[in-house]
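Hi R.,

As promised, here are both runs. First protein below:
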Amino acid sequence: MLRKPLSALQLSDLVEFFQTEQEESSVLEFKSGDVKPEGIHKEVAAFLNTEGGLLIIGAPIEKSIDGIKNKKVCVGELTKSTITNQDSLMRSIGSNISPAPIHIKSRTFQFGEGAVHVLDIPASMTPPHQVTEKGIYYIRFEKEAKAAPHGIVEALFQKRQKPNLIATLESYKPVWNKKLIQIAIQVKNESLITAENIGTIFSIHGVKSVTNHRNLPGNLEFKDEIAKTLYQDKGPIMVKGLTMDLWIEIEPLYPQFYISFEYYCLHGSAESLMCVMDINGQIIESYNSRNLTPENQQSDIFKKYEELRYGSLCRLLSIRKNFDDRLQVPFDKIFELESRLAMKFPDGFLEFFRIQNGFTGRLGNDILTLFNLDDLFQMAPYPLLTSDVDLLIGRFGNIPLFIRFENKDYTFGFMDFEQSDGQYAPLAKSFYSLLQQLQSGKFDELYPNEQDENEDEK
């Protein structure tokens, strides 16, 4: 509402805000500096019992608009609250509202001999809250705090009868290796009701390697650039105040990666937390089912990751294409080819065919050729005779590049024909890593003879 997070708000922002007429709403309340403490308690309780809101104490004195019935606005100079101490204000709120509210954020600005306070009050997870000095439960109705009818109070009490799990996510960059990212997720039960049969689905897309982890529920699986776990417990495991702390350390494959965490419990609601994060641990876009806005849609987050991954692959191959121009992959041909190989193509490799069907161009020190789907189909071995399959996918200079399918897994590499039996040499676990290896010149260290021949030809 003030176009800034509370932590960044300055007194000058409030002065500027009230230079124009401002009207209260269901989530915005103004109080002048001479408001009595009970008036503050009433508004805080109403926000807690409804959908939360912002309370400004020290706003200009409200005035009516001529010719418009029941319309009042605040405009002009700020007033001074006689409550000058932030701690005193929060103690007054905590001792006069039951149960005592938590998670209220506050900011106090000294203003002459008084102060101006801004309170950011979230919707409570343990309603209803009563103003104890009057014994009344309040709710926010349109622009006012009203005494709640018995039916609404009863419905608010029912919310306490269910477990209420909340998840938070943080990221860290270890000092010993700047390539790594540590992801920490904490699940906490905010309700007085014990959470039973807790389940979690945790996945990270765009992973090059998992270097460490602890407390991950279930078995960790890592394949095709995705690290994931699926978990369901059968008994009551989390009372109020206890937490489930999950931690994983990864090396991202792309400049951005995608995190999805879904969690639920018996009689509680299923919730989800998703984000696209960059290699510095900064969140680019996020979704939290507990904090929905029209711009915060679940499907948009994964699409953003796909768009960034597509752009990373295009830049690596020096191809100028927009995400909206991506090609339709002929999956009927892909499925037929996978049936012949009795293996599934890695998604990162298929992403290349959404950019273009086949490629020839310079990458690093040599010319890279990637075959189109028709060529791949012609070269695929048939019928399948062994559990290990090598599929030629292109060339780097004169060196043949392969995918080796082995025991339902795969690697990307090349065939070293300097060896009498044409020994396969693995290079990478993903298509994107293979291209990075070829571009970086590290490939030349593995296959120096070919590079020497190229230099002689030049």
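And here is the second one, sequence first, then its structure tokens:
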Amino acid sequence: MIARIKPIAPSQSKSPASVPRLAEMSGSILLYMIGLLVDLALNPNLAAGWYASGRIRGYLGEPDLAIEHLERATRLSPLDMQTARLQSATAFAHFLAGRYDDASSWAQRALQVRPSYPSAIRLAAASSALAGRPEEARQAVERLRQVDPALRVSNLKNRLPLRRPDDLTRYQEGLRMAGLPEQ
């Protein structure tokens, strides 16, 4: 199977944003992860690869490994222009691990860098709600509805290819508690 996968050459791996998006669109995260592991074996200093691996490990329900990979990406590229994405992905991994205070803190860091980043705002809303801070959660949902007016609790599943059903359920519940409309 690996022989049929064409690894991404380091010179082609320029946009960490496209890596998880590609995995989402391909519908085969596990297959993509195999190719990514080959890439990282060929170039263990590929920050974009570690970022992508961190995101995908989160989707696969491995939040602690996701955090390790995201930390490595940050060490390899500490001044990366995609800092908000790394911080938001770290927030996401903490959220998946049930560490809502940490998730909220990382989401706030991402929002300091990129105030209108929908992923970070979603995480700030859901994690604040589940951490017992309803006013913070409500304010985040107000902001979220300005930057992503089409988002509803019911269509969140179309944006996140989460492998563990409980992860989606908790995310939806957090956003519901924060005040995001169901439909």
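A quick note on the second one: DSSP finds nine helices and no strands in the chain. Let me know what you think.

Best,
J.
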